[in-house]
Task: structure prediction
Amino acid sequence: MMLRLNIYSLITFFILFLSLQAIAADTENTNIKLIGKKFPQFNLHALGDKGEKLSEKILIGRAKVVHLWSKDNELSNQQQKILAMINTLGIIIIGINVEDRLSKNTRLPYHLCLTDNKGDLAKALGVKKKLPATFITDDKGIIRYQISNKLSGVSWGEELETAYKNTIIMLDLKNKTDL
Result:
């Protein structure tokens, strides 16, 4: 019985892994070399705060959505409205502003917002010219999904939510097979 459960779990895990890879295989909008790799190192300030810097270690412990954006990019603004809705599902969303500029009354849908004002992280991720860019990392900070400068409206939000849920299911199955 236990062997049957493990085989079923492994097959399900493999199918979910392939579906995430297929979603991420849009090579025009995805740097597929990043899928399965650790999120690049960074040391960034919280937006509007020049105090303590935060590193990629904030991605450890739970799956997260990381959204790189630019204030003057209309697609970024549209996606932030959708992220605000997704935020209600309990998904941790980290925003990274690639400019360090905001208007005074800007409401952001992020649990934490960092600034990459030199663009070094965006460049390391290969998305400096492809903003906005969205990544999903697993509990170890491994990139499981990425899409850049594509999709607006509900279809982008639905794709993001599906990829996040698949990542969570994949982690749950992996943890069960590790026992």
Notes: Residues 153-178 form the longest helix (26 residues). Residues 1-5, 10-29 have pLDDT under 50 and may be disordered.
